[in-house]
Amino acid sequence: MKKLFTTILVLFLFTLNSFSQELEENALRIKQDFNSGYENTIKKYALVKWKDEFTMVVYEINKQSDALTNLIEKFKSKNTTILYKAIIKWSQPLKAEANHKIWKELSSIDLASMLKFHTDWTMVEYEYDKENKAANAF
Protein backbone atom coordinates (compact mmCIF):
# COMPACT_ATOMS: atom_id res chain seq x y z
CA MET A 1 0.00 0.00 0.00
CA LYS A 2 2.82 2.36 0.87
CA LYS A 3 4.46 1.66 -2.51
CA LEU A 4 1.20 2.42 -4.34
CA PHE A 5 0.79 5.71 -2.45
CA THR A 6 4.38 6.70 -3.26
CA THR A 7 3.84 5.89 -6.95
CA ILE A 8 0.66 7.95 -7.08
CA LEU A 9 2.39 10.86 -5.32
CA VAL A 10 5.32 10.77 -7.76
CA LEU A 11 2.95 10.71 -10.75
CA PHE A 12 0.96 13.61 -9.30
CA LEU A 13 4.11 15.68 -8.76
CA PHE A 14 5.35 14.84 -12.26
CA THR A 15 2.01 15.98 -13.71
CA LEU A 16 2.18 19.26 -11.81
CA ASN A 17 5.72 19.83 -13.06
CA SER A 18 4.65 19.07 -16.64
CA PHE A 19 2.24 21.99 -16.53
CA SER A 20 4.74 24.42 -15.11
CA GLN A 21 3.62 28.00 -14.90
CA GLU A 22 6.97 29.37 -16.01
CA LEU A 23 8.71 29.57 -19.33
CA GLU A 24 11.44 26.98 -19.65
CA GLU A 25 14.95 27.36 -21.08
CA ASN A 26 14.18 27.20 -24.83
CA ALA A 27 11.14 29.44 -24.54
CA LEU A 28 13.03 31.99 -22.45
CA ARG A 29 15.92 32.04 -24.95
CA ILE A 30 13.57 32.49 -27.91
CA LYS A 31 11.63 35.21 -26.09
CA GLN A 32 14.81 37.06 -25.13
CA ASP A 33 16.80 36.68 -28.36
CA PHE A 34 13.97 36.76 -30.93
CA ASN A 35 11.18 38.63 -29.18
CA SER A 36 9.34 39.77 -32.29
CA GLY A 37 9.22 36.24 -33.75
CA TYR A 38 8.25 34.84 -30.36
CA GLU A 39 5.40 37.33 -29.93
CA ASN A 40 4.07 37.02 -33.49
CA THR A 41 4.16 33.25 -33.81
CA ILE A 42 4.72 31.03 -30.77
CA LYS A 43 3.02 33.19 -28.15
CA LYS A 44 0.23 34.21 -30.51
CA TYR A 45 -0.43 30.57 -31.44
CA ALA A 46 -0.61 29.55 -27.78
CA LEU A 47 -3.00 32.40 -26.92
CA VAL A 48 -5.29 31.63 -29.85
CA LYS A 49 -5.31 27.95 -28.95
CA TRP A 50 -5.81 28.30 -25.18
CA LYS A 51 -7.23 31.84 -24.78
CA ASP A 52 -7.30 32.66 -21.03
CA GLU A 53 -6.21 29.24 -19.77
CA PHE A 54 -2.83 30.69 -18.89
CA THR A 55 -1.26 27.54 -17.48
CA MET A 56 -1.97 25.87 -20.81
CA VAL A 57 -0.67 28.91 -22.71
CA VAL A 58 2.67 28.60 -20.89
CA TYR A 59 2.67 24.82 -21.45
CA GLU A 60 2.02 25.33 -25.19
CA ILE A 61 4.75 27.96 -25.50
CA ASN A 62 7.23 25.61 -23.83
CA LYS A 63 6.14 22.68 -26.00
CA GLN A 64 6.35 24.69 -29.25
CA SER A 65 9.72 26.21 -28.30
CA ASP A 66 11.20 22.82 -27.47
CA ALA A 67 9.94 21.28 -30.71
CA LEU A 68 11.31 24.13 -32.83
CA THR A 69 14.69 24.06 -31.08
CA ASN A 70 14.94 20.27 -31.43
CA LEU A 71 13.97 20.43 -35.08
CA ILE A 72 16.65 22.97 -35.91
CA GLU A 73 19.29 20.94 -34.05
CA LYS A 74 18.52 17.75 -36.00
CA PHE A 75 17.80 19.34 -39.41
CA LYS A 76 19.85 18.02 -42.32
CA SER A 77 19.89 19.87 -45.64
CA LYS A 78 19.10 16.66 -47.54
CA ASN A 79 15.72 16.76 -45.77
CA THR A 80 14.75 20.27 -46.89
CA THR A 81 11.75 19.02 -48.88
CA ILE A 82 10.54 16.98 -45.90
CA LEU A 83 10.74 20.07 -43.69
CA TYR A 84 8.93 22.25 -46.22
CA LYS A 85 6.08 19.74 -46.64
CA ALA A 86 5.71 19.39 -42.86
CA ILE A 87 5.57 23.17 -42.37
CA ILE A 88 2.88 23.52 -45.04
CA LYS A 89 0.91 20.49 -43.82
CA TRP A 90 0.85 21.75 -40.22
CA SER A 91 0.38 25.45 -40.99
CA GLN A 92 -2.03 27.25 -38.74
CA PRO A 93 -5.48 27.82 -40.27
CA LEU A 94 -5.32 30.10 -43.32
CA LYS A 95 -1.52 30.43 -43.08
CA ALA A 96 -0.31 27.83 -45.63
CA GLU A 97 -0.03 30.37 -48.47
CA ALA A 98 1.80 32.88 -46.29
CA ASN A 99 4.13 30.11 -45.10
CA HIS A 100 4.79 29.14 -48.72
CA LYS A 101 5.82 32.75 -49.50
CA ILE A 102 8.10 32.84 -46.45
CA TRP A 103 9.70 29.57 -47.57
CA LYS A 104 10.43 30.94 -51.06
CA GLU A 105 12.34 33.87 -49.50
CA LEU A 106 14.17 31.72 -46.95
CA SER A 107 17.96 31.83 -47.00
CA SER A 108 18.78 29.56 -44.04
CA ILE A 109 17.27 27.16 -41.54
CA ASP A 110 17.89 28.81 -38.19
CA LEU A 111 15.83 30.00 -35.26
CA ALA A 112 15.31 33.53 -36.55
CA SER A 113 14.14 32.29 -39.96
CA MET A 114 11.88 29.55 -38.61
CA LEU A 115 10.13 31.96 -36.25
CA LYS A 116 8.56 33.62 -39.29
CA PHE A 117 6.35 30.58 -39.92
CA HIS A 118 2.87 30.20 -38.46
CA THR A 119 2.78 26.49 -37.81
CA ASP A 120 2.44 23.86 -35.10
CA TRP A 121 6.10 23.03 -34.40
CA THR A 122 5.30 19.93 -32.36
CA MET A 123 3.53 18.42 -35.36
CA VAL A 124 6.18 19.64 -37.81
CA GLU A 125 8.85 17.93 -35.71
CA TYR A 126 6.77 14.74 -35.54
CA GLU A 127 6.17 14.78 -39.32
CA TYR A 128 9.83 15.53 -40.05
CA ASP A 129 11.00 12.64 -37.87
CA LYS A 130 8.44 10.22 -39.33
CA GLU A 131 9.20 11.09 -42.96
CA ASN A 132 12.95 11.16 -42.41
CA LYS A 133 12.83 7.69 -40.86
CA ALA A 134 10.72 6.38 -43.75
CA ALA A 135 13.00 7.97 -46.37
CA ASN A 136 15.99 6.21 -44.85
CA ALA A 137 14.21 2.86 -44.50
CA PHE A 138 14.68 1.72 -48.08
Task: Give a verbal description of the structure.
- Helix content is 73%, strand content 0%.
- By secondary structure, the chain is mainly alpha-helical.
- It has one domain (22-135).
- The longest helix is centred in the middle third of the chain and has 21 residues, at 54-74.
- The N and C termini lie far apart (50 Å).
Key structural traits:
138 residues; globular; 8 helices; mainly alpha
Low-confidence stretches: none
Q: Mean pLDDT, as a whole number?
A: 91
How many beta-strand elements?
Answer: 0
How large is the count of helical segments?
A: 8
* Tally of structural domains: 1
Shape: globular
Distance between the termini: 50 Å
Helix content: over 70%
Supply the helix-strand structural class. Answer: mainly alpha
Specify the biggest β-sheet: none
* Beta content: under 5%
Q: How are helices and strands ordered from N to C?
A: HHHHHHHH
Itemize the secondary structure elements and their pairings.
Elements: H1 2-18, H2 25-33, H3 35-50, H4 54-74, H5 80-89, H6 96-104, H7 111-114, H8 121-135
